[in-house]
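Intended use. Records like the one below are meant for learning the mapping from a protein sequence to its folded structure. Do not use them to infer anything beyond what is encoded.
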Amino acid sequence: MLRRSLLALAAAFAVTAAQAQTPPPAAPPAAPPPAAPAPKPLPQVRIQTGEGDIVVELATDKAPVTAANFLRYTDRGLFNGATFYRASRPKGYAGTDYGSIQGGLQNDPKKVLPPIRHEPTTLTGLKHQTGTISMGRHAPGTAQADWFITLGDMSYLDADPKDPKNPGFAAFGRVVAGLDVVQKIIALPVDPNRGEGAMKGEMLVKPVRIVRVSRYTPPPPAQPAAAPATTAPAPAPAPAPAQAPTP
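Structure written out for the chain above:
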């Protein structure tokens, strides 16, 4: 009886030892993290004018209130038939790389929508540089349907983070095509006697008609041309058959 118990105990010990020596099964490999979704492209708008087309990309991610306001006018066709009416450059400056052009509805009561909340550049992080599109206004919170495009470093139009009394202007996008058209418009003649206040002497003699403002989908990037296929060499001509001897 004792011998049987000892044998059973030894068998159990052997099984336990074998289990201890067997490594645990390997954990399955961790699944790779899901790929981050591609950022949604920013909306673009084409401004068709008598001098050519300008395409602007709207910063709906950084200046959502101001960009959405511009899109409301665009989608309703309210900018169609408006004008670029102002070209501002330093007095006596003949270059076309510094200043701004201004366009819009000039407070047309039949077309303007309610004014919008001011979005200062200290909030949006945008800057007034070459190609920036920004809202015209009187006091902050009065911007409606007039806007301007800048040329050159015009950071003095940005909000001053050290001076709350200088909220600047609300930039809301940038020119992505047609900057040459902006330069063409800024070079047009102005009337030295028209305009009031800061606009005196900056009103275009012949305002540039804005034919249409509409959403724009840029064409897909061109695909690189495929390399030409290698032409196999032409097979060598078969040798002419030997002529039979003349009888």
